[in-house]
Amino acid sequence: MQTWSEIVVDVQQNWWLYASMPFVAAIIGYGTKIVAINMMFRPLEFFGIKPYLGWQGIVPRKAAVMAGIACDTMTTKLISPEDIFNKLDPDRIAKEIEKPLLEAIEDITREVAMHYSPGLWEVAPLSVKNKIIRRIQDDAPNIVNNIMNDVKTNIGSVFDLKDMVVTSLLRDKELLNRIFLEAGSGEFRFIRNSGALFGFIIGIVQAVTWAVTHSPWVMPIFGLFTGWFTDWLALKMVFNPKEPTKYLGGLIQWQGLFLKRRHEVSAEYGRLIAKEVVTPRNIIDSILRGPLSDRLFGMVQKHVQLVVDEQSGIAKPFVVFAVGSGRYQEMKLLVAQEIIKRLPETLKNIEQYAEDAMDLERTLASKMTELTLEEFEELLHPAFEQDEWILIAVGATLGFLVGEMQVLLMEHFAR
Q1: Which of 357, 368, 365 is nearest to 86 (CA)?
Q2: Is-above-0.90 flag for pTM?
Q3: Which one, of 166, 77, 59, lies nearest residue 375 by Cα?
């Protein structure tokens, strides 16, 4: 340990080295936070030699868990299938898709007729062909209306909101990353910046300790402490305390940043979910292709076959005679299948109306403000909690290594 006079002389001779210590510590604090945040989200897929020598971002690696947590909060606390569909008007939907649906019906009717009895369809009078097509087209809005009413009445049997949300997030890990990154953008910015601030303060203590001891262990130990402590403290300050709390005799008041920003976060989270996850296109796709889609197809088939029976009218005996009753039943089924095949493309026309009518962005943002602090915390905290110790350990290791480099530089440049 040096005497006071030796310390003064040393600082005067190597003042620039001492002045650099707080800045180097600030860089350690800032840099380790950037590394930690990137390790949470990158890479999307495992990079390295499986199973242990390599890395995959925590959120992508835990995608199923993350998606499940986000989905549980969303579907149990924020929205339900009824919230989505009760705002839709079947008549308006029928109107929105009327034109493409009529075009599809005309093409489908011609295809089916040509498939089952090409010669007969070709020689049939144009008036008969048009009458069959027109009668089915005239009842098309009723088909859509009836199907929509059936869907709304039996929403639980044809639409699985949880499955749709989880499937969307698992299919697109980049989207899952974006939800955490954009909803928590303020928190991640705070973590980076606080690392620099806390690191600078620790660097001042480090400079004093080095001046007194000149121990080669000062730099790596302080580097390790800077990486570890700044990671740990920043993560704690994001979520704690839950309520505004005063410190240092009331001079400082702090509330976990994520909870303090709940209104801002709610608006951003609602926007992301409404624009990227619970979208009309994903809802339609889930109904048409999801685990419960067979029941919807049964509904569509029932309505279309009724129309074929009812609207064949004068042409029905002619059709049955031509193709036989057995093949007539097949034809009805084919009509239903062809319409179902075209539904995804046809229903694109209702996406804008459905988005406006459901107004999910505002609904989600509003309901999020009604969550308890504990429930709200669960929207983002799982991304930090999963393997949090690894991030802190990496920060500490990087800090230690930078500290070792500092020792080499100090010994090389010190006079």
Answers
A1: 357
A2: no
A3: 77
Contact (Cβ atoms closer than 8 angstroms) between residue 33 and residue 231: yes
Picking from 96, 81, 82, the residue whose alpha carbon sits closest to that of residue 145 is 96
Is residue 166 within 8 Å of 71, Cβ to Cβ? yes
Question: Exposed (0-12), middle (13-18) or buried (19+): which is 191, by Cβ within 10 Å?
Answer: buried
Return the closest-CA partner of residue 144 out of 86, 87, 105. Answer: 105
User: Percent helix, strand and coil across the chain, each rounded to 5?
Assistant: 80, 5, 15
* Cα–Cα distance, 4 to 283 (Å, whole number): 74
Kindly list the domain boundaries of the chain, sorted by start residue.
16-70+173-269+373-414, 88-160+291-370
Structure tokens at 269: 């989270």
Q: How far is CA 240 from the centre of its chain?
A: 25
Structural contact between residues 137 and 106, judged by C-beta atoms closer than 8 angstroms: yes
- Residue type, position 335, single letter: V
pLDDT digits (tens, 9 = 90+) for 146-185: 777 777 777 777 778 888 888 888 888 888 888 778 877 8
Whole-number mean pLDDT of the chain?
Answer: 75
Cis bond before residue 241 (omega within 30° of 0)? yes
Residue type at 390?
I
Alpha helices in 42-62 (DSSP H): 58-61
- 121 within 8 A of 129, measured Cβ to Cβ: yes
Sign of the Cα pseudo-torsion (261, 263, 264, 268, in order)? positive
Place of tokens 């990227």: 276
Instruction: Pull the structure tokens for residue 34.
Output: 């950037």
Answer for the pair 407, 222: CB distance below 8 angstroms, yes or no: no
